[in-house]
């Protein structure tokens, strides 16, 4: 079923302890869309400036992504982000950020995208996420990402948004900030009480925790020995998961658990190279093969 | 099959952000033995001083633990430890420690324990672990725990020990210290190259990673919302796992994966109260019931 993502497209500079990638394609929407497209066609709504390189647009040709909603705005500049990873490759500092077009009006949603059933609202101001959500009256599953900035500065809008969501995705420190609970299980219970049917707390290299009104789920990350660049892991995770759900048309608890495993696997490929490089090299078959391998690691039967 | 544990018995004072337990029974050996005894009879070898309260000895009556090897040494004092947990209940500081009897001669291994097949060498100087190991000529599975102190001060003895082990158990920061690798998967590969057939890296609330010469395993921790005292979680984990292996008489990879799940579950009970309190209240049935619940959380099938 139709899956749409709204979010950022960026030009990233990523510095790791052993390498550096200058001015590569990034942004929540880009990782999400590429990851989801292994499972289902993806509709993308986002804005870039007129400085956005034409060859970066051609990357989407490699994936099943409808870029009708990608607005190239004259006189604006593309979002730019520079980040530096710590030795542990899990923590990072933002060295430089220029919101540029992200600070302007939201991109328009093409009319023919209004019937979208699966909606992912990547991280932005919750008031903007609410405004976008209004444009998808047929939505069957709405999931949003958020971050510390909005938890601290837009609590009321975030609270409104949460009552409209099926699912919220956020990382461990954000879950703690949102609830004031240091125990993540306790935090996840509080979040579900705030509105969404389920919450997924992402823990980076440690995996994720699902709290759904029908039950819990826990997933260790895929054990990756070779992490080149963790940027986009969270968005690839969400994209793989939502792509799988849209492809099977289900939103029950077992389907969500399996979806999170697919998200885990796609993210494990993303981090093997900078930007979308690794995702351009793999197929759905590679994903399924690694999922089988992963399922072996989790086996508890004798 | 016969399971033996050698390690410390302590009198602990535990301070958490919300509570305090003064002078309670603790020590690696105690948690290990209690946890393992849900699966198989356990033989214990350890020393205490003549200050050790009689009523603490009676705790072992609640578990299937043979205390013939528990030496009450006249003129010596029992090991004492005081620790304070941070708000996150995962990190802790040692506030005070008195090695006392642990700094003296090793306790003697009773002759009738020499035929032990499953041997767990809880954390102590690796030279002492080697000396203890010599006394179990029929050992089928030997697993040891270690810590930063020995990695930094007794590298050569630790290296000798590792070549004699089937399995090594240690936590994430220790695995990084031992190998110089910040990526835990890479660290686990290096450890297996140092001698043991497998290594289990414990990650506290995040679960554990198994690297076995035959394959990997990853386990998220049981999602516990109510953590009263994490002390002994790692030893209960090891005890539950070794107890299960000794009970089924297998040491192959699927058995080890299932054993780690049992260890995870027993540890999840341990942390629900101070000292052994919670373990005195539960039965094997409670453990199996929680394991089934846990297996649901891990399900990936549709």
Task: Give an overview of the whole structure.
The structure is a homodimer of 302-residue chains. Chain A is α/β, with parallel strands linked by helices. Helices cover 35% and strands 25% of the residues of chain A. Chain A is built from 11 helices and 13 strands. Chain A has a 9-stranded mixed sheet with strand order 5-4-1-8-9-10-11-12-13, sandwiched between helices. Chain A has a 4-stranded mixed sheet with strand order 3-2-6-7. In chain A, strand 2 and strand 3 form a beta hairpin. In chain A, helix 3 runs parallel beside helix 5 and helix 6 crosses helix 7. Chain A is globular. The model of chain A has no long low-confidence stretch (mean pLDDT 95).
Oligomer: homodimer
Task: Tell me the fraction of residues in β-strands of chain A, as a range.
Answer: 25-35%
Tell me the total number of β-strands of chain A: 13
Written as H for each helix and E for each strand, in order along the chain, the element string of chain A is EEEHEHEEEEHEHHEHHEEEHHHH
N-C termini distance of chain A: 38 Å
Strand order in space, largest sheet of chain A = 5-4-1-8-9-10-11-12-13
Helix share, percent of chain A: 25-40%
Largest sheet of chain A: 9 strands, mixed
What's the average pLDDT of chain A?
A: 95
Shape of chain A: globular
Q: Uncertain segments of chain A of ≥5 residues (pLDDT<50)?
A: none
If helices are DSSP runs of H or I spanning 4 or more residues, what is the number of helices of chain A? 11
Classification by helices and strands of chain A: alpha/beta
Greatest interface (CB-CB under 8 A), with counts per chain: A-B, 43 and 43 residues
How many whole angstroms does the radius of gyration of chain A measure?
18 Å
């Amino acid at each position: 079923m139709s899956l749409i993502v709204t979010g950022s497209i960026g030009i990233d500079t990523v510095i790791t302890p052993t390498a550096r990638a200058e001015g590569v394609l990034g942004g929540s929407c880009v990782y999400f869309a590429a990851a989801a497209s292994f499972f289902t066609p993806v509709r993308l709504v986002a804005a870039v400036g007129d400085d956005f390189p034409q060859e970066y647009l051609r990357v989407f040709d490699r994936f099943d992504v409808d870029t009708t909603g990608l607005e190239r705005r004259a006189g604006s500049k593309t979002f730019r982000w520079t980040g530096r990873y710590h030795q542990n490759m899990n923590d990072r500092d933002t060295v430089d950020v220029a919101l540029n077009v992200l600070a302007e009006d939201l991109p328009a949603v093409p009319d023919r995208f209004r019937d979208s059933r699966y909606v992912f609202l990547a991280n932005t101001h919750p008031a903007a996420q609410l405004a976008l959500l209004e444009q998808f009256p047929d939505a069957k599953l709405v999931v949003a990402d958020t971050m510390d900035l909005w938890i601290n500065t837009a609590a009321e809008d975030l609270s409104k948004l949460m009552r409209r969501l099926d699912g919220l995705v956020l990382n461990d420190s954000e879950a703690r900030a949102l609830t004031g609970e240091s125990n993540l299980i306790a935090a996840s219970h509080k979040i579900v009480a705030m509105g969404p049917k389920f919450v997924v707390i992402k823990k980076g290299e440690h995996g994720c925790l699902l709290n759904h009104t029908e039950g819990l789920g826990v997933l260790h990350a895929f054990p990756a020995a070779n992490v080149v660049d963790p940027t986009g892991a969270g968005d690839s995770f969400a994209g793989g998961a939502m792509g799988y759900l849209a492809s099977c048309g289900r939103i029950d608890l077992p389907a969500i658990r399996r979806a999170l495993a697919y998200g885990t696997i796609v993210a494990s490929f993303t981090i093997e190279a900078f930007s979308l490089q690794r995702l351009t090299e793999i197929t759905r078959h590679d994903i399924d093969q690694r999922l089988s391998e992963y399922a072996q690691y989790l086996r508890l039967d004798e």
